[in-house]
Amino acid sequence: MSKKKVITIFGTRPEAIKMAPLVKELEKREEIESKVCVTAQHREMLDQVLELFDIKPDFDLNIMKTKQTLTGITNKVLEGLEEVFEQEKPDMILVHGDTTTTFAGSLAAFYQQIKIGHVEAGLRTFNKYFPFPEEMNRKLTGSLADLHFTPTKGSKENLLREGIEEKNIYITGNTVIDAMMHTVEDEYEFKNEYLKKIDFNKKIIMITAHRRENWGQGIENICHALKKIVKDNSDVELVYLVHLNPVVKDVVFKELGGLDRVHLLPPLDTKETHNLMNKSFMVMTDSGGLQEEAPHLGKPVLVLRDVTERPEAVEYGTVKLVGTDIDKIVNEASELIKNVEAYNRMSKAANPYGDGVASIRIADAILKYFNLSKKEVDEFKR
To answer: What sequence ranges are listed for the domain UDP-N-acetylglucosamine 2-epimerase (predicted)?
Structure first.
């Protein structure tokens, strides 16, 4: 039996976190020759994840540069992968989610008629500019893909409405839950000296906010709301992981720098981030990944966006959309801080995103697609 060559492609830290457990699973499969190509759309943060999961890429396009544009990223990924594909001639590539690496990687594979598997497929807001450019990245990738690995039933239904054949869609759960099985430790001790000094017996709110749609007034509003929250609640401390982009960083430090009980830290490595979340009281974020990760840990999430492509957590009650309206952010946060029943309703709601074995399901589906296994894929049900 000849092996099938599968190249897993990713370029950012969120992709790497979610693809790492899948890479490890593919390495176990005798029927698959697994290779990894990173674009390094993000460099330093990507490398942290590769080190954590002990992944050594076979190819590194190393495309990141300062002030890179979407056009520049797309061009470099297309050109770099063209060479990789001509050399390796893979049977399938795997891409994840909705980054520019994901779309460009899929397009490069399509140009050479290579099969495409899309991990975390089917997420939609149905507004092409929210989030930008992610909504169109994932939709265009979905049009190009041959296999679609959706985290939930809802994301599968999105693809069915777009005309994707049901036999090519598998509900797998989200691979980020697989990753968290390896990163979260109840007795974890932080490496970051600043985090070591924080009293986690207090109500620690973990914050991230950096999406393009929030640049400018959105980030300013979020900062004004955070000021009021910490001023009105003496038992609350904020830990804001501030994105390195000056568009975000400059505003955050101007508005929040030097305030008591407000800790502004640079982005942490994956293990530190997951364990900070685990020890926090709640999470406020415009990130997609944290909307999946925090419910797994029983942490309520206030999403600093007006729309989300992850409606399941809203439906289950683990997440609330608050946008960037100052009063709404303050009111919803205060309700969770002061009302134990409201907090418990969110923290104890079921996590709709996975059970820790998504990577096994994806590997099983790939083998079935290539007729290397007759085993039926045990899909995720929630």
So the answer is: 24-366
In sequence order, what DSSP letters do the residues of 100-126 get, joined into one string? HHHHHHHHHHHHTT-EEEEET-----S
Could you confirm whether 134 is annotated as catalytic?
Answer: yes
98 given a catalytic annotation: yes
Q: Which of 88, 91, 120, 312 is catalytic?
A: 120
Residue 263: active-site member:
no
210 catalytic per annotation: yes
| CATH number among 3.40.50.2000, 3.40.50.800, 3.40.50.300, 3.30.565.10, domain 4-174+354-370 | 3.40.50.2000
Catalytic residue (choose from 96, 210, 211, 305): 210
HSE toward the beta carbon, residue 58, CA cutoff 13 A = 16
Each residue of 242-277: pLDDT tens digit?
988 889 999 999 999 999 999 999 999 899 999 999
Q: Does domain 195-348 have CATH number 3.50.50.60?
A: no
Give the pLDDT confidence of 310-355 residue by residue, as tens digits: 888 899 899 999 999 999 999 999 999 999 999 999 998 878 899 9
Residue in 14, 21, 12 with CA at minimum distance from that of residue 288 = 14
For 85-112, how does the pLDDT look when each residue is reduced to its tens digit (9 = 90+)?
999 999 999 999 999 999 999 999 999 9
Q: Which of 42, 118, 138, 243 is catalytic?
A: 243
Catalytic residue among 15, 98, 292, 312: 98
Whether the model pTM is above 0.85: yes
* Catalytic residue selected from 43, 182, 212, 261: 212
Which residue(s) pair with 7 in the sheet? 35, 93
| Residue 36: strand, helix, or coil | strand
